[in-house]
Design a protein that fits this description.
- It is built from 14 helices and 12 strands.
- The chain is an alpha/beta fold and 364 residues long.
- Strands 4-3-5-6-7 form a 5-stranded parallel beta sheet, sandwiched between helices. The protein has a 5-stranded parallel beta sheet with strand order 9-8-10-11-12, with helices on both faces. Strands 1-2 form a two-stranded antiparallel sheet.
- Helix 3 links the parallel strand 3 and strand 4.
- The radius of gyration is 20 Å and the shape is globular.
- The two termini are 31 Å apart.
- The model has no long low-confidence stretch (mean pLDDT 96).
- It binds fructose -6-phosphate (F6R).
Length: 364
């Protein structure tokens, strides 16, 4: 049941802290503060490159995974949505890593991409929530997300669970490739293990998110912006808004705004940006100033450290705890999903069963 929540989506949003914790527990030894991967039938250190594929939200999780794996493990990663990947026939070297991500493990396009990768000699690792699924049976290894059943058609908790797994895989790959010493691993693992309590604190920002929702609910179009690992967070926010509120939303890498979408901006198109403190903060801030100068209403997700400077230009600022740059996309996803939920409440849409959508897309 819904445990007293109004919708499954609301219940599942509140499960983020627990789900992140349970998922990490499987992959981290708390005593040594090290990542412990399940036995793999191949050598992580020998992987020449990785190819990541998935659909929808799972694909956005994969985009963040690519960002991490390239940055920390220095392994080249190719990524595409499964419906494109399965027909692209990319030239893949034998012994590469085929990394699939799926909540259900039954998505037709992702399954077809898995089979295509296997046929050309990739080692298949799947990040799955349903461990008794078709994709699980056809993979060389399964990395489980411990999210429990996700009933809401719009995915929420599965996403942060997928990111938790991908973060651990990144650490394991970086260590295998000789790029992660014990101190660095301990710092990254500590940042991960702190996430459940930090995620709980995000819910203390509910009133500010609700205020933001009243502005978004009035709009016909919304622009989401983010840079680096926050770009997929923006994509996730825009998808969730479209899915459950039927408001048109688009996400752009913040630096692309001036190459076209800036012409959309006026006071009727709110700009929702995810801008935590960190190396990309100033760059994104200057993109927001450009939007502001054109009359855009800025609604910003940031952290405690980034908040003071954003309050000078933004109409709404939601500041969640400041965390290590590595784990920030996991935490920043939560308020963005809550925003979509709050807008859906204001619009009175069928949150758990949006029109035209099915939980598991088993046809092409
Ligand atoms: C978005 C959403 C969909 C799924 C996509 C993949 O809220 O739910 O975009 O993420 O259909 O589904 P799985 O993860 O089951 O392969």
């Amino acid at each position: 049941g819904k445990d007293g929540y109004r919708h499954y989506m609301e219940k599942e949003l509140h499960e983020h802290p627990v789900v992140i914790g349970q998922t990490l527990q499987r992959l981290i030894d708390p005593a040594t503060r090290r990542v412990v991967m399940p036995e793999l039938p191949f050598d992580l250190a020998a992987i020449p490159r990785a190819v990541v594929t998935a659909c929808g939200s799972a694909f956005y999780a994969g985009m963040i995974g690519r960002y991490w794996i390239e940055q920390y493990a220095r392994l080249p990663v190719d990524i595409d949505v499964a419906s494109e990947m399965r027909y692209r026939n990319p030239p893949l070297a034998q012994g590469g890593l085929g990394l699939l991500i799926s909540q259900s493990g039954e998505t037709a396009d992702t399954l077809a991409a898995l089979r295509g990768m296997r046929a050309v000699g990739q080692h298949i690792v799947s990040v799955l929530n349903v461990e008794q699924s078709t994709m699980a049976r056809e993979s060389d290894a399964v990395l489980g997300t411990v999210a429990g059943p996700e009933i809401s058609v719009a995915s929420t908790k599965a996403f942060t669970a997928q990111l938790s797994v991908l973060a651990c895989l990144t650490i394991a790959l970086a260590r295998a490739r000789g790029l992660m010493d014990g101190a660095m691993e301990e710092a990254m693992v500590t940042a991960l293990l702190d996430l459940p309590s930090k995620a709980t604190e995000v819910f203390e920002r509910h009133d500010e998110i609700r205020r933001m929702a009243t502005i978004v609910a009035e709009a016909r179009d919304v622009l989401y912006l983010g840079r680096g690992a926050m770009f997929p967070v923006a994509l996730e926010g825009a998808l969730k808004l479209k899915e459950i509120t039927y408001i048109h939303a688009e996400a752009y890498a913040a630096g692309e705004m001036k190459h076209g979408p800036i012409s959309l901006i006026d006071s009727s198109v709110p700009v929702v940006a995810t801008v935590p403190s960190g190396p990309l903060f100033d760059k994104t801030l200057s993109n927001l100033q450009e939007a502001r100068a054109r009359g855009g209403r800025l609604l910003v997700f940031t952290d405690m450290e980034g908040a003071p400077r954003l309050r000078e230009i933004a109409e709404c600022v939601v500041a969640i705890p400041t965390v290590d740059e590595f784990v920030a996309p996991i935490l920043q996803t939560i308020p963005v999903q809550i925003l979509a939920y709050e807008v859906a409440l204001l619009k009175g849409t069928d949150v758990d069963q949006p029109r035209n959508l099915a939980k598991s897309v088993t046809v092409e």
